Amino acid sequence: RLEEERDIKIESIVIRLQTAFRLHRIRKEITKYYSELLKKFGNVAKDSHLGYRTSWPKHGPVLNEAEAFLKRVYKSWWARKKILGLSDERRQLMRLQLLAHEFLGKKKQGFKLASAFPSLLLTHPGLSAFEANYGRAIFTCETIKVSSKGKPLRRFLIMTSEAVYR
Fold this sequence. Notes:
52% helix, alpha+beta, three-stranded antiparallel beta sheet, 4 helices
């Protein structure tokens, strides 16, 4: 009878020891990751790029969800800092660029709006007829399309809230 009680107690003691060891390893990994984060991102506010090019420390699978959460928080902070530092005109242009990237970013690598346009909406006689049929134009610009035979053709790129027309 004494041996049976000892076997039961040993089993519970082993489970407690394993749990304590696993918790110790997890705490150690979290502490190491946190100290590496402080080293890499400690002075990020003074960096001209606000830490955009800083690599994230490596970690085990235990911290995957925590890192995903921290990356979302960092990206939100980074965007807020960048936008608050812009003039009103540049903010408006940034909003248009984000809208254009939402439409075209996945299809056109490296897509950027040219900031050289004095006006982001062209005044063209056919624009009002287009808007009557397809909706209000958010962005328009005149482009030159080069045909497969090398002939330049004058075209318009028109972006509405629903689609992009060329």
